[in-house]
Automatic annotation (TrEMBL):
SUPFAM superfamilies, per the entry: NAD(P)-binding Rossmann-fold domains
Protein name: Ketopantoate reductase
Top-level taxon in the UniProt lineage: Bacteria
Domain Ketopantoate reductase N-terminal residue range list: 34-149
Gene3D superfamilies in the record: NAD(P)-binding Rossmann-like Domain (3.40.50.720)
Length: 195
């Protein structure tokens, strides 16, 4: 069994709150990011990354896709409902639709199915945001493109509105790292995105 060594912890620089003001990204490279799933965690990351000016696309389906296309991503900001419309949406990912990072914020029981859908896509890094240990079956699907992580955010979606909560520096933040424990260029790039 392979073990996941935490080599970099990235924290949102904001206290635990429903307020979603501020930006988390201070970089100059125009990263192209895909969030594979529009549930709570996927929506939280899509929102924060898009608020920081990055090129963000969400892969969604069904009613959630319809709501995102119609209204943009709606969210609660200090009891005021706001929306961000700069996030692009897709229903299907083509193999030659390449992103710098694909984030997969799905439950553990959905991970193999999601990774299988990404198997033939040519993007170089797939960041799982799932609570687990042991990645052998995932490595069989996507190989060394896998970069495991754990989300430092949560919340709820009610009537198509995101109510987000973020980890503070005293609590669990977003964590990611190479399975072998090395600090690679892609880990450094991902860390820059969250600085």
């Amino acid at each position: 069994m392979r073990y996941f060594y935490l080599i970099k912890q990235v924290l949102f620089k904001q206290p635990v709150t429903n307020s979603m003001k501020g930006k988390i990204i201070l970089n100059t490279k125009p990263y192209r990011l895909l969030i594979f799933g529009a549930g709570v965690i996927g929506s939280v990351y899509a929102l924060r990354l898009a608020q920081s000016g990055l090129d963000v696309t969400i892969l969604a389906r069904g009613k959630r896709l319809e709501a995102l296309k119609r209204d943009g991503l709606k969210y609660n900001d200090n009891r005021s409902i706001k929306q961000i419309s700069s996030i692009k949406t897709i229903e299907k990912l083509d193999n030659d639709d390449i992103y710098d990072f694909i984030f997969v914020p799905v439950r553990y029981d959905q991970a193999e199915s999601a990774l299988s859908a990404l198997k033939h896509n040519r993007s170089k890094t797939i960041v799982t945001l799932t609570n687990t240990i042991g990645y052998d079956s995932w490595l069989e699907i996507v190989g060394d493109r896998l970069l495991p992580g754990f989300p430092g955010a949560g919340g709820d979606i009610k009537e198509d509105v995101l109510y987000a909560q973020f980890g503070s520096e005293k609590h669990q933040g977003t964590i990611f790292g190479e399975i072998n424990g090395l600090t690679t260029e892609r880990v450094k790039e991902l860390a820059q995105i969250f600085e």
